[in-house]
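Methods: example folding runs. The two proteins below were folded one after another, and each record is reproduced exactly as written to the output file, sequence line first and structure-token line second.
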Amino acid sequence: MSKAIIIGAGIAGIATAIRLALKGHQVEVFEASDQAGGKLSEIRLGLFRFDAGPSLFTMPQYVDELFRLAGKNPQDYFQYEKLDTICNYFYEDGTRIHAFADPQKFSKEIADKTNDSADSILDFLKKSKDIYEITNPVFLQRSLHKLRSYLNLETLKSLLRFSQIDAFRSMNQSNEARFKDSRTVRLFNRYATYNGSNPYKAPATLNIIPHFEQHFGAYFPVGGMYSIVSSLTGLAVDLGVKFHFNSYVDEIEIINNKVTGLKCKGESHFADLIISNMDVWYTYTRLLKSLKVPERLKNQERSSSALIFYWGINTSFSELGLHNIFFTEDYQDEFKQIWEEKGICSDPTIYVHISSKNNPEDAPKGSENWFTMINVPSDTGQNWDELIRISRINIIKKLSKILGKDISKLISCESVLDPRGIDSKTFSYQGSLYGSSSNSQFSAFLRHANFSSSIKDLYFSGGSVHPGGGIPLALLSAKIVDDLIK
């Protein structure tokens, strides 16, 4: 029986551990913090519970698959509910759009509230589906860095349709050509933020993302997002995976260009295979000290980060749902500030996630737990304390205006997470949430491979490598690593 060690108990690390245990490997996971999950974590403030990181759950079949591979009934471990309304959108002019899960209702809602037709929305969703069907077999399910990925009929069919994925226009250019109303354009441009990118630079191929929500659906895990982690960790333990928490890895040990194990707390731990679920930048700079950081990695633009206020709100708002977006009027300026000025605009788009809407136990009766987030640049030495102070004022002002209540008087408790904290807590270089950005048509090919080309039996999973960030892609990275290991 060969021994595999996984560095990092993020969602991809746990999924990789499950897959390798099912293959008969002896698997151990070393995690620097005191809990599994990585960015997919939770915090508690008094009687309030918050999912601290990712808050949108799509493609649940990738989680279910792990239980089924183990011969288990997923519902015995993990349950989730499909959302009828995916998100509520609020605009400064008073427009409120409900993104219904049903495409017909959604398209009618936009037609009723904007100057765009229902047919234009349905055509867009069809285009999103086409991009998914073309790219999924090649870009999402397989390694882009192995020749065999391209030597099959399915890949050939996808490559022959490459021109249809709209890779040579920006997302904004495509959406402005398709829609008349800036409210609709902003709604669909927002999907670039799902992988930390800029819709004014990122390729229109990213218009694939709405398909995940509108076709496959958006869901809420019973008990909150962290139940994904707890259920998969439970499965891993049942399969014999051993977790080491509070165990920061010092170094990956290599002899003759092959991994031999790792060093943790001064002790060496033997391994036949090493899979790093740690941000690939820190894997090289902290754990592979004898290797040079690949030039491609040095030159990659980092994804955006986030500034999050976790607020206990001592009232409830009937007009808010699980997911809520409050748009800026000048969306282009917001992204200019993030990507060119490395700052935060005075009127940012605000995302408010309220898990207590679906899981009442997350807040005291009559109260709500607000995960209040704006997109911000990665940490390059900005004065974050001042940016946080100003942003808090601007966020409260905007929310108070749109909701008609002074939010500042309703906050009973608060915690703040900024790019510095994201970096230090989750080892995400510069606090970037998704590793590198996807601001060019070549970004997918420039992401680090899921294996080392110079060190035998060294692999990489997670959001900082192929195929990208977010729960579904992180889980697919585990599947790709599983396919690569013989």
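Second run, written to the same file directly after the first:
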Amino acid sequence: MSQADLIPTIGMEVHLHLATRTKMFCPCEVRYDAPPNTCVCPVCLGMPGVLPVMNGLAVELAVRMAIALGCTIPNFAKWDRKHYYYPDLPKNYQISEYDEPLGLGGHLDVELDGETFRVGITRVHLEEDAGKLMHAEDGSNTSAVDLNRTGTPLLEVVSEPDIHSAQEARAYGEALRQLAVYLGVGHCNMQLGQMRFEPNISLKIGDAPDGSPVYTPITEIKNLNSFRSVERGCAFEIARHRDELAADPQGYTLAKQGKSTRGWNDDRGVSFLMRSKEEAHDYRYFPEPDLVPFVPEPEWVERVRASVPELPAARRKRFIIDLGLPEYDARVLTDDRAVADFFEQVAKAVGDAKTASNWMMQDVMRVLNERNVPIANLGVTPAALAGAIRLVEKGTVSRATGTEVFAKMVETGKSAQAIVEDENLAQTSDAGELEAVVDAVIAENPDAAQEFAKGVDKAVGRLIGMAKQKTGGKANPKVVRELLIQKLRA
């Protein structure tokens, strides 16, 4: 069998923190900057006799995500206890959803290199997060436990094995993050551990006599917290499986290893064996006795469905077809929901989507990238930006001056009109006032008329530049051009 016949097959488990103020089953605040073990209570610490209470907002956000992924929302979902021991899991079990989750089926369409591939969604379910181990870096080989994260609402999205390359795995992760942020389901700051990826990787090596596919044993890489790590980790495991098969074509070595769970060393770019991969029976699941099942009213599900906004792909298509934007502009502007909302308000106020897009792409995005801030922190409202654009469109200021005015709006919070008036930046557009300037420029450049007569357009450009110099940059170039051509043709 050639290496080309070994088809990578990847399914992804993605965990993301929901955008709630409090934890999943207790009123403790969800904070990422709090001192260790200060956002805890008897419930999330698993003290004897305590009772969990379900966070309603967490359930609503989870259902919103499931609906956006095209999942079926069952009329019954239950909570289960998933038992395992780990130092940062004080109860020694995790409240999760096992065999009856709140979202089933669905898909996510992902774009990569101009093509779209579809990843099926197996299930969407809710659970609570564990705590966090902090390992000493002083060589003492000790660890401390921070339980602030224990009980944080955690949404898990499990995909079908429809991903077939490391690049596709990364693109899927990026698309899922964009969707979650777009919906307001989660903030997905991976540096804070708010989104983590666990790809399950194998290679299809052929077909059994009955026609069913045969795969190498699945490798799961735990807790990847960046798109770069997802791509590199998947690529490493695909290559490792191929190398094992090249050395042992019958696959005995991989079969002996069986399903495995591996960690990822990002500095070295290699995975390492942690343990054999657990099966469901290893967790001794049973229904959570302290929580009632989730039985949603159909009317409530429809209200949540109505709260789902226009999704990025549909919005991008509308921007291209209805607003006439180039595909690149539409893609950039719909990457972030707040940016797309801001743009639409500007476009409506200005009455010209392409003009609004030009300002967003050239001016607004530059400031956001330079300052590394969300558009909510731009310091300029859509109405204020539209005011600056209208001054340029009316010829009150030039486009170049408009850029300068916008920068001062960001710095000062003042309106474009106020800045133009305070700093006397308005262009001179009065033809009578500019005629004397044009006459002077032509008189000082007698060869210009001859060059113009020979069809040298650059002559007009040079004369416009001179006219602007004489007026301190305030001459409206459009009016100056019209006067120059009129006089040079006379």
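Comment on the second run: The two ends are 82 Å apart (CA to CA).
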